[in-house]
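Summary of Year 1 activities. Much of the first year was spent building the evaluation harness for sequence design. The harness presents a backbone, in tokenized form, and records the residue chosen at every position. We chose the following record to illustrate the format because it has been used consistently in internal testing since the harness was completed.
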């Protein structure tokens, strides 16, 4: 059982993936939200195709990056590009981002 947990870890943060939603499924939803305010920037949200031992609960594809890390990466990209609706983005794609981001502020 120990080896199974190791293979279900995020390649970015090394935590066990507890919200198994792949970056492709997340990116589709994120583009919809961002497109409401900035259609051009929405197209810059691309999935990170990193295979792993965890299966996405939405599409069944294997995945190796947790929802928290992918959301954090997209949030930071949006913030760096001047997206003015980052609070709305966080409210929809939190995955403990607000808690962990406050640790850095």
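For this record, the design step produced the sequence shown next.
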């Amino acid at each position: 059982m120990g080896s199974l947990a190791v293979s279900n870890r995020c390649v970015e943060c090394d935590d066990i993936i507890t919200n198994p939603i792949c970056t492709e499924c997340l990116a589709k939803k994120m583009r919809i939200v961002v497109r409401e305010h900035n259609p051009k920037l929405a197209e810059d949200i691309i999935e990170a195709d990193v295979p792993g031992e965890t299966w996405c609960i939405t599409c069944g594809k294997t995945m190796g990056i947790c929802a928290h890390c992918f959301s954090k990466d997209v949030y930071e990209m949006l913030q760096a590009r001047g997206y003015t609706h980052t609070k709305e983005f966080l409210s929809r794609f939190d995955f403990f981002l607000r808690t962990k981001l406050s640790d850095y502020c």
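Residues 2-104 form one domain. Quantitative recovery figures across the full test set are reported in Table 2.
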